[in-house]
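Run log, item B.
One chain of 104 residues. Sequence copied directly from the ordering sheet:
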Amino acid sequence: MSEREVPLPPPSFEFLVFSLRMQAEAQLVEPKEGGSEGEGGGPDLRLARHFIDLLAMLQDKTKGNLSLEEQRLLDNTVTELRFRYLHVFEAVQKKAARASASNE
């Protein structure tokens, strides 16, 4: 391994869940107030939903095969991401409604 390479964590169920969670959360980032549309790009709800659905599929397919800690991690992750998705979805809808009203 060269000096510049960062060591990778060992493969684990927790790391897989964490990786998919980070991908979903990265897609739910809202643009900063006062920023233009080009800055940050805003949330990508379609892609965020895809990662949440992947975690939910993993939840379904692994039912009964996980340790209590792994099951809690996955259940909590899916629940928290779904809640955050709805929050961002509603914010996007309100912003679109305000923009539509101001253009009339």
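Observations after the first pass:
- Residues 41-104 form one domain.
- The radius of gyration is 18 Å.
Flagged for discussion on Thursday.
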